[in-house]
Amino acid sequence: MSEIEETMRAMGLRAKAAAAELAYAPSEAKRAALDAAAAAVWDARGQIIEANARDLAFGRDKGLSAAMMDRLLLDEGRIASIVEGLRAVAAQPDPVGQDIAAWDRPNGLHIRRVRTPLGVVGVIYESRPNVTADAGALCLKAGNAVILRGGSESFHSSAAIHACLRDGLRAAGLPEDAIQLVPTRDRAAVTEMLRMVGVIDVIVPRGGKGLVGLVQAEARVPVFAHLEGICHVYVDVAADPQKARAVVLNAKTRRTGICGAAECLLLHRDIVDGLGAQIIADLVAAGVEVRGGPGLQHLPGVVPADAEDFGREFLDRIIAAEVVADVDAAIAHIRRYGSQHTEAILTEDDATADRFFTRLDSAILIRNASTQFADGGEFGMGAEIGIATGKLHARGPVGAEQLTSFKYLVTGNGTVRP
Amino acid sequence: MSEIEETMRAMGLRAKAAAAELAYAPSEAKRAALDAAAAAVWDARGQIIEANARDLAFGRDKGLSAAMMDRLLLDEGRIASIVEGLRAVAAQPDPVGQDIAAWDRPNGLHIRRVRTPLGVVGVIYESRPNVTADAGALCLKAGNAVILRGGSESFHSSAAIHACLRDGLRAAGLPEDAIQLVPTRDRAAVTEMLRMVGVIDVIVPRGGKGLVGLVQAEARVPVFAHLEGICHVYVDVAADPQKARAVVLNAKTRRTGICGAAECLLLHRDIVDGLGAQIIADLVAAGVEVRGGPGLQHLPGVVPADAEDFGREFLDRIIAAEVVADVDAAIAHIRRYGSQHTEAILTEDDATADRFFTRLDSAILIRNASTQFADGGEFGMGAEIGIATGKLHARGPVGAEQLTSFKYLVTGNGTVRP
């Protein structure tokens, strides 16, 4: 057995032992651990910023892009956000033990379906060090032990934050192994995690196409699929012009680097030269490169799209655009090119909206609002680990509740089955 | 590409096309298809019995056990049960389109979490030909296309039943490819199904240890885990003697061949020579072989257990039995030997029952009632494909509702994210 294999198996055993204890940990202890962790992060902000400086130096040597360096950076403001996030999860209701449903049977049996933890969660993420705190906190809230595997770029920052999470667990009398961080940059640790059937109950990958592809190809453990956010906005012939202009601009430009940012605009053919031209002019004025199909190339500022621009996650001030004959053509386009993440329709026509909602099967479908609302916080779920695009177990924003399972508790009175 | 690969890929494409249509099929059409299928099965009972005779001849040549031959057998009575099952699923409410939750956000967004089909389900099962009807019906009710792969022993019987299901679909104007049956006995078809990522959304294995093990080892597609039912019954010191005697006897002997049958009896040490002796005498009188640990071997009729008898699914008139010090020792025993299917406790003490319910994590935990209630019908869910023992997505009885996913439908009024 290699050293990495040994390390990971030992972590797995510790995680399972911690999970068995966490499964019935009092809500108050979990809350106290997260509040104590928040305080510890704030107290240790000096050390965290120091650790982050080492990561930034490593990143510079590695030649990371400006965007990557920005994701990596921690300053006092960002550490304050981490603290706030921990306190917010601490304040959330505990999902474990909640009744999902309860009913009586004619024979007198009383049946409850009750939320339980999943067990051991593996989270594999990339450069943002704040995920260490977010993912650790959400898993703990849901009563799960977690094995975190951060990006190699954020190695020291994540370790410094993780130390604070352990301080919080210790202060609350919970097992410190409830939140473990893989102590090596070696990529073999990821491969090992993906194979830990019977130890890790589910893997949550959070990162780019490369990471997600690797996880889906190699995992033997179940995975919450998390594909790209190739979000579409369809402007129908019955769209309200003012709403449509505001929503498209926001969906593309509010933030371009998040998975809920719009990547493709579909215009009903009857509005191309009126509302469509205005929307495109708004985007161009906001500095967006509009890559249009043949039916849009006569409009000012539109550059010709090529085939690869459809179904592409730009995460940048670029949008693909295409003309469609009607809502059915928009639906067909989205089925072909989308990633079942989030799509929006602008229309005042209820039947058209209903068709869009019924015939598409993305995790999130939106009418007359921005795709940028695809976010656990905006849904009112508190924090999230990510947006799941698969159809099993978790779908859409993955918060504490989505990190739970359930069991049935049945009570009788000496009841036997005839 | 081998012939089997080609066959399976073509079936997969047809299933996906059918699933896209089924996703928004009216409830009335699905109900009509199932009622028409029920009528078709009854009309074709002569042909089904003929087809079954060919399977029985094949089974005799293959030297199947009496129990296997009995599972395989279809007579008019059993066909009537199949018809009744189809009508019962037809009459169930349609889960697709149901609101699971709905709420408003302070910014005016209205969010609904709505049930959707999963897509394409693969069901791999063994000898019982009735699963063809049950699984086909439940998948259709939930708006899924299904690829059924029955046991080679029930090849002709399953094909005859499947023809009736297609008749039902055709009569209701639904795509006939909504329910497909793998048209070959070749085992390579199973291997192919397990690899159809992006085509089959989930595999439901229904069968013995060998099948389930194969599926779990080879599947690249997600699987609803379905381990053995190694069900435990713990009789506490605070058990009511009358309830305990009735429940243990029922849990073991009502039917011994189902996954909810009790396989291990745990007795609190303080009741061994009183209530415990009575319970064991009841079992022995009912023809059950009681294989006891050292603390029970002085009781009349008890034969010595060996180590392999614990954690074993007998599916027969045999039960393992052991003495434990208290509820915590019972919990530890069950954690070590159980399969997280169903366990029962007999006690009048609320704190003890609560400890058993909280600290064990089986799909179903039962107080003062028989483990034989581990069944979708008994839970009031209508029919079931099986009892899932995994913790992701489906757990416990898998009925139509457990064969669904969900999506979020968000409605705004030109709402943009600040």
TrEMBL record, chains A, B:
Residues 16-281 form the Aldehyde dehydrogenase domain. Its main location: cytoplasm. It catalyses: L-glutamate 5-semialdehyde + phosphate + NADP(+) = L-glutamyl 5-phosphate + NADPH + H(+). Its EC number is 1.2.1.41. Catalyzes the NADPH-dependent reduction of L-glutamate 5-phosphate into L-glutamate 5-semialdehyde and phosphate. The product spontaneously undergoes cyclization to form 1-pyrroline-5-carboxylate. Belongs to the gamma-glutamyl phosphate reductase family. This is Gamma-glutamyl phosphate reductase.
